[in-house]
Amino acid sequence: MQGCWRALLFAALMVLAACTSTPSGTKVTVNVADSQGNPVTGQAAAYQTGSGAWQALAPSGTGVYTFTVPSGETRYGVTINCPTGLQASSMKATTYQATTTEATVLKVSCPLAFSGSVAKVSGSYNLSAVAGTSLGLYSDTGQKSFSGATGPYETSSTLGGNRELVAIAKDVGGNYVGVKVIRSLNITAPIVVNINFTAADVFATGVVNDFSASVPTGFSPSFGSYFLSSSGAFTAFLDSTSATSGSYNKVPSTIPGDLHWVYASASGPGGRQVAQINVRANPATESFALPAPFPPSTTVAGAKLPTFPIGHLVSDPDFRGYAVLYLWEGLPGVTGGSSAIWQTFLSKGWIGSTTSYTLPDLTSLPGFGGAKPLSGEQASYILGAFLSNQGVATLLNSSPASLGYSSGLLHPLYPPRVDGTDVRWALLSGNFTVP
């Protein structure tokens, strides 16, 4: 009898273990953060494994979502509908579709989700030392412009220590003539900071090697630079030149965490563009090799959920995937209409031999009722074939450039804040009235 009881106990324990065991497979973790890196939970989330149906996904903690891709399967998708804060009724979603061999830890940025406190930053400015006549001022909440060589200014910043302002001076001809980074601001309440340029507050310069050989026929080239301060201040535009070689502006005195984007691009007919961004802590002489553009015959048919061609550049050794930015504007006074920003990244491994992609219909899932425009609304898209020297795991799990919490647009092709990153893409953009 004792042996029978032992057998029964063992059987019961095995049944209990089977009921409570973690599903076998590969765990995928998604971390969701606002513009300041604080974890936030989305309005809704959904996931897909293989080619199965999309399912609702509940958070496993604040700003954390996990799911398991079953053994024998590698492809998955996940969509986060961000908390949009300033525009709570609109949709701001990010979709990643990748494989477990490429990435299992992902980061989704929700710039409108910032729910912390801000304080006024104000004072006076003086650009006379660099012959400036207008000021562009960047903080971690956005960008503002002020006219005149001197005058008052007012902006805002999130509360905290080590906050920064980036001040850019332009002259009467619109030339960029000065830059000043105001660092180590401890902002706990409204603060007065006077910005007085000196003769030393001028740009350093770097060199762009000639990239004319990679400019497609009939395309108009340009190059320039941006600055991303260490604290994540709104990306500061430093200059742009319509040429294929020359000098670019950069901040002369940097600290660890500061980064520059140095870019080259060429725009052509039919909404086509090619570009490259080099992310550098200490940029100097930069070289560019623009990829081939989409063929002129490439089109995207207008639909509520469009189908995009994704066969261009897939044989390039640096091909990492495709990105889609899809936006639509709600019709005023129309019930159910809302504005939306939906950005999607499809990895090389997920794409495989597929040559077209249709955005998934998530409208039956909780929190995604607005994930499809209404007939008559205005929609636009940017499709990008994406090349990089970084792998998918880095691209999908790194902080992108900050655009301030007041901007809802985080282009899916913005490179990560990782020194040494090169990103190249071929873009196709268009717009249509939703049928």
Characterise this structure.
The chain is globular, with a radius of gyration of 24 Å. It has a domain at about 115-200: Immunoglobulin-like (Sandwich). The strands form 6 sheets. Strands 3-2-5-6-25-24-27-28-21-20-17-18 form a 12-stranded mixed beta sheet. Strands 8, 11, 14 and 15 form a 4-stranded mixed beta sheet that branches. Strand 17 (about 220-230) and strand 18 form a beta hairpin. With about 425 residues, it is mainly β. The chain has helices at about 1-20, 350, 390-395; strands at about 25-35, 45-50, 55, 65-70, 75-80, 90-100, 105-110, 120-125, 135-140, 140-145, 150-160, 160-170, 175-185, 190, 195, 205-210, 220-230, 235-240, 245-250, 260-265, 270-280, 285, 305-310, 320-330, 340-345, 355-360, 380-390, 420-435. It is built from 3 helices and 28 strands.
Topology:
Layout lengths: L1 H19 L4 E10 L9 E6 L5 E2 L7 E7 L4 E7 L9 E9 L5 E6 L7 E9 L7 E6 L2 E6 L2 E9 L1 E11 L5 E12 L3 E2 L2 E2 L7 E5 L11 E9 L7 E6 L4 E5 L8 E9 L4 E9 L4 E2 L20 E3 L9 E11 L10 E8 H4 L4 E3 L19 E11 L3 H4 L26 E12 L2
Parallel strand pairs: 1-7, 6-25, 8-14, 8-15, 16-22
Antiparallel strand pairs: 1-4, 2-3, 2-5, 5-6, 8-11, 9-10, 9-12, 12-13, 16-19, 17-18, 17-20, 20-21, 21-28, 23-26, 24-25, 24-27, 27-28
